[in-house]
Write a structure and sequence with these properties.
Elements lengths: L5 E2 L3 H9 L14 E5 L3 H12 L3 E5 L11 E4 L1 H9 L3 H7 L5 E6 L5 E6 L3 H5 L4 E4 H12 L4 E3 L4 E5 L4 E4 L4 E3 L2 E4 L6 H7 L6 E13 H5 L6 H4 L3 E6 L2 E8 L4 E9 L10 E2 L1 H7 L5 H8 L4 E8 L13 E3 L14 H16 L8 H30 L5 H22 L1 H6 L18 H8 L3 H16 L13
Helix pairs in contact: 2-6, 2-12, 12-13, 12-17, 13-17
Length: 483
């Protein structure tokens, strides 16, 4: 291989890896692939970790010259925290995150509480906790997990792909051949065009998102704001065409704000600077506490929100080039599942490919990855779009009906906290009672589907019910995943 800028596993990461759990009951692929991953985001790093654990050789290519992750807070929901704990990162998660007690929705004008749902009890309900974390902290955690299992090549811009070889060509002219190429290269994916033969068009949502972080010490000095830190809830303010989500991160040392507003010519980028003055003007009609919070913001990022419809396929006909994460299912932020879906993708893929015993099994295992993941990510995209409409209703009859539906679920939740007997007597004791609630976090069926999901269990179940017979005992033929 030609000389290149590479970052092998460092000693600290190697030592940490020796102490981390072995995945897949120690199972390693008998047929070892050289996997080329394009993109060093959440999904690419998670895939490197899982595929390395499965016994494959991994090289990850990143166009940037250094590894740095900007942004602000994101949410680590139980469907992801269970994986991170399984991977041995539970102690670090507890150190850098905040466990919110509840999600609360309020009216924009006066702060009146219209919704309350506990999320601090999700470990009891779904077997893993709900966290808030800074994006950079999660990225570092995943980098530390992946480092012992990969060679990371920086300054390595991929300019073309040969899906049959398969190989990638870098801007330098270097050609690198592997056995499987994974496009984890984000919303502006080059690899997507190779798989589809075209690029999935982006559709403007009409929204953009300001992101800002405030030192929590500023809130603690103000009696009106102190409660937002003392009681770590996720607070949402809903207004006409706009909403705000706010929560604690970094062990309650920082307070994260995401402010969705009508797009005014921003660009689709995590790093684009916005105007703090414009942000304050856009939310000048929100309640006094919001205006106080925004007075502390010195700078902000402004990210244009673009929507993309689910793809028809994630796998090139050669079965040697596939997509993962935002490259195939970019998520709008209204359901907080973007990173979650990418990490789930990686977990399912790693589990499936830990069973690769001969070259002919690659095609059906890769097809199973698409079959298992595409429907789930498409449904999560749909839920995200739904929240955009729910949160942004103009004042009037629809908004009043939304608030009434949210209040009904809140009242039942508060009764439940007072005692199970009172809750059952209220007639709200069944999952059907709040199915379709405008507060999607109060919908037990949606919560179970989203947060009880275990990517490894899904892959293992597919193997028991479909794969062991169709793939384990034969060497050819496509397999349709059935749950």
């Amino acid at each position: 291989m030609a000389t290149h800028e590479s970052v092998p596993a460092h000693h600290a990461a190697a030592e940490a890896a020796a102490q981390r759990p072995t995945l897949y009951d120690g199972r390693k692929a008998a047929h070892r692939l050289h996997v080329l991953i394009v993109g060093c985001g959440m999904g690419g790093l998670a895939a490197a970790h899982c595929l390395g654990q499965a016994g494959h050789k991994v090289t990850l290519f990143e166009s940037a010259s250094t590894i740095s992750e900007v942004g602000a807070g994101i949410q680590v929901t139980p469907n992801v925290s269970r994986l991170l704990r399984r991977w041995g990162a539970g102690e670090e998660l507890e150190r850098v995150t905040v466990r919110p007690e509840a999600i609360v929705f309020r009216r924009y004008k006066d702060g009146d509480r219209v919704a309350y749902t506990r999320i601090g009890n999700m470990e009891e309900q779904y077997g893993a906790p709900y966290y808030h974390i800074h994006r950079a902290d999660l990225h570092k955690l995943l980098l530390d997990l992946a480092a012992p299992f990969m060679t990371l090549r920086l300054k390595s811009l991929v300019v073309s792909v040969d899906p049959e070889a398969p190989s990638i060509t870098l801007a330098s002219g270097e050609v690198i051949k592997g056995d499987l190429i994974i496009g984890a290269d984000g919303v502006k994916s080059i690899i997507q065009g190779v798989v589809l033969g075209h690029t999935n068009p982006a559709e403007p949502t009409g929204d953009a998102a300001y992101r800002a972080i405030i030192p929590s010490e500023l809130l603690l000095k103000d009696p009106d704001l102190k409660g937002f830190v003392d009681i770590p809830e996720m607070t949402g303010w809903m207004g006409p065409g706009r909403h705000i989500m706010a929560y604690n991160i970094r062990a309650q040392k920082e307070f994260n704000l995401v402010l969705i507003h009508p797009d005014d010519g921003s660009i689709e980028s995590w790093t684009a600077e916005g105007s703090a003055e414009k942000m304050r003007a856009d939310f000048a009609d929100f309640e006094p506490r919001v205006r106080k919070l925004l007075s502390f913001v010195k700078s902000t990022l402004n990210w244009r929100l673009m929507d993309r419809q689910p793809l028809k396929r994630w796998v090139h006909p050669s079965s040697k080039v596939i997509l993962l994460g935002d490259a195939c299912h970019p998520m709008l932020p209204y359901r907080a599942q973007g990173a979650a879906m990418a990490i789930e993708d990686a977990a399912v893929l790693g589990n499936l490919l830990s069973r690769l015993n001969q070259p002919s099994q690659l095609q059906p295992l890769i097809q199973a990855y698409e079959d298992l993941r595409l429907p789930r990510t498409a449904e999560t995209q749909r839920q995200s779009r739904l929240n955009q409409k729910i949160f942004h209703l103009p004042d009037g009859p629809e908004q009043e009906a939304r608030d009434a539906g949210m209040r009904q679920a809140m009242e039942a939740e508060l009764r439940k906290m007072q005692g199970e007997a009172a809750y059952k007597q209220s007639g709200a004791g069944s999952e059907e009672a709040f199915a379709g609630s405008p507060n999607q976090w109060a919908d037990p069926k949606k919560n179970t589907a989203q947060f009880a999901y275990d990517a490894d269990a899904v892959a293992e179940r597919w193997w028991r019910t479909v794969g062991e017979h169709a793939v384990g005992g034969s060497s050819t033929g496509a397999v349709v995943a059935k749950l």
